[in-house]
Amino acid sequence: MYNFKEIEKKWQKYWDENKTFKVDIDENTKKFYMLVEFPYPSGSGLHVGHTRVYTASDVQARFKKSVGYNVLFPMGWDAFGSPAEQYAIKNHIHPSEVVQKNSKVFKEQMKMLGLSVDWSREFSTTDPEYYKLTQWQFLQFYKAGLAYKAEKEINWCPNCKTGLSNEDAEGGVCERCGTKTTKKLKNQWVLRMSDYAEKLIDGLPDTQFLDKVKTAQINWIGKSVGASIKFKLDGIDDDLEVFTTRCDTLYGATFMVISPEHNLLEKYKDKISNIDEIKKYQEEARCKTEIERTDNTREKTGVLIQGIKAINPINGKLLPIWVADYVLSTYGTGAIMAVPAHDERDYAFAKKFDIDIIPVIEGGDTSKEAYVGDGVHINSDILNGMNKEDAINRMLSYIEENDIGMKKTNYRLQDWIFSRQRFWGEPIPMIHCEKCGWVPVPEEDLPVVLPNVESYEPTETGESPLANIEEFVNCKCPKCGGKATRETDTMPNWAGSSWYWLRYMDPHNKNEIANEKALKYWGQVDLYDGGMEHATRHLLYARFWNIFLHEQGLVPYSEPFLKRIAHGMILASNGEKMSKSKGNVVNPNDMINEYGADALRTYEMFIGDYSKDASWSENGLKGCSKFLDRVWNLQDRISEKEEYTKEIEILINQTIKKVSEDIETLNYNTAVSALMILLNKMDELDSISKKDYRTLIHLLNPFAPHMTEEINQICSLGKELSMSKWPTYDESKIVNETYEMVVQVNGKIRGKIEVSRETSREEMLSIAKEIDNVKAYIDGKEIINEIVVPSKLVNIVIK
RNA sequence: GCAGGUGUGGCGAAAUUGGCAGACGCACUAGCCUUAGGAGCUAGCGCCGCAAGGCAUGGGGGUUCAAGUCCCUUCACCUGCACCA
Q: In chain A, what are the helix, strand and coil shares in percent, each to the nearest 5?
């Protein structure tokens, strides 16, 4: 047994003092940027799920360093957000104090784990020096016309009393607290992210993201190609514009539907005779939660607008206009042409309200259901006889020629609601002057620092708590010097994480994100590890942000991340999610105290496929701890020999190859198992050479860095492993001279025999036929086929 | 509904991409050692069978000398997206 407690502490101290993992730009060495999502430093400390992810990244970083890369493996804190704020509300202390305390604990735990992080690059998104630059970048968005303030119907969490972006209210549930969200009309800062929809799709082929991550992004962006068509209003000099992907069904439109939020209602309220009824419907729609509104099993509701009709531009037919909440204000133009014969939703609505259904494509039975398939167009004048594709193209040219519409691409992706009415976020650096309007805070006045306040509670009016602090709010207009007020909204949690990987490249730079040389050298993140839950949020925001910075000439690459992987979760031993409330959380500190960091690391790499969830098993951890003990105990058996021991030379070469490839392809579990196999073989020998041992511990070093350094030192096996070049294998010593030839009769194994790899096909066959058991099967039978696979097997097919 | 994924011993999993299914580990069983064992060592361990052998990778079918791997079909579970016009 080795004393892991002392040994681990010793090496952690050594790495700290010697700055073993400090990196700098080195133009002569190829770089590797290993990034793992930085944590939110919560009060509960690390969890064995975190330690799995950090260990995997660390294995990768240590390996890449050993094979000769200049590795950037940084860590920091994503510390704005709800929990620290909640804690502050309760205990009346500034959230920054909570963050400082918690991140200290996190860092200690990471050091206990033995991560090869360059701690000189550590920062928190809540550091004023950091958020100064976040604010500065917001101003760049503003100056480029990509940040605007708008009255918008937004997702609202009644519990947190704050607005939320679409991404934060996914599924109609508040991401912070789980409360069902409602809609609220609010004046918001918004980033024009939807302008980047196409770029966000176009950039994906340049990355090596996992397919499921790419697909999730593409789905979220939701590109659809169709047409916008203008319907004239009857007796009013105005149009109602709709977006449709099926302009070929225009002849089948029998009514129009607008969303309850559509501005037509306000604009022509005087012409609408049943405006009170409609107002009531609007109110109902607003009070519904997003979940209620988008439940597609719910029966359709709606109100017919009395007094306004639209005109179908293709045939001049008058169409009634309905208000219904199945049409979303946030998609397309918030209005549709309804073709009940060929759209399920329109069909359900028409059936309920007894509206005409005119089929314009042959197929299906439109008295029973909407037919959404392809087919020959009918009742469609210029389109009659055409299929869907031809009809769409014909209609597109018709509407463009006649100026009633145009080809259009629409996206589900919305602009990014960037305002939060909470205390603990970056203040949005804008000032409102009655004379000059919105004026950006001058760069030299940044950062706009979060003040100390009595109460961090959100206000009942839906304003940020900052709004109550007069000395914060009241200021002078930077433009005219007159009386002005500061914006009191803060940025969303995702702001700080939208550029943090750039900051690691040059974290102490006071004037800019990072200097050009650093940005160029470290370039793109080579491998970015994070959870699947960020595939459509953080990852989209970060890409959007980076593409923008690139367009501004501020960063050299358009795409920030080259390769994105997603890890699985660590579940409790019964397969449930670990959670405080269930009391099944495994604390890594306890495991480290009992078995050591090396054992925990090795176990978490061995537990299973890294991309999949895995159930915790303390017995499994014990097994790995035993494995490390056995590696340690080999010390008693080393000889002074300098070369590989003959019996295991091939296996050692194979293991070098296997472990190197497995780490490269993130198959950590099989890398560990290969090392176990090698150990088992060495353990059978009476003595092993120094070279045997050194190679074993070197290959094990990324997994169990402390113990292997210690062995290396006390057995004087060579240079410090963290500073040594990774072992290489000899291609000529990968295969044995002999192999076990498998002999099958009719595909069933009937014999095995050790033969030389040189054995010819003919020899293989004749050797096979001499095996007694094989003879018993083939004697007196007619052989109809003989398959020989060199270096593998012989299969004799008999009748 | 659409898109993607997964399904292999009691358990976590492997399988050179069509060539010995179950490597490695856990659990379990027997034995050794020990005053003791939540230590260590040895052996066994998919299922049926005394054995020879047979059967086995969710189910069914197919291609092939040979299928966990390829094709068709079906079931189950999981993850995205979803009244997106």
A: 40, 20, 40
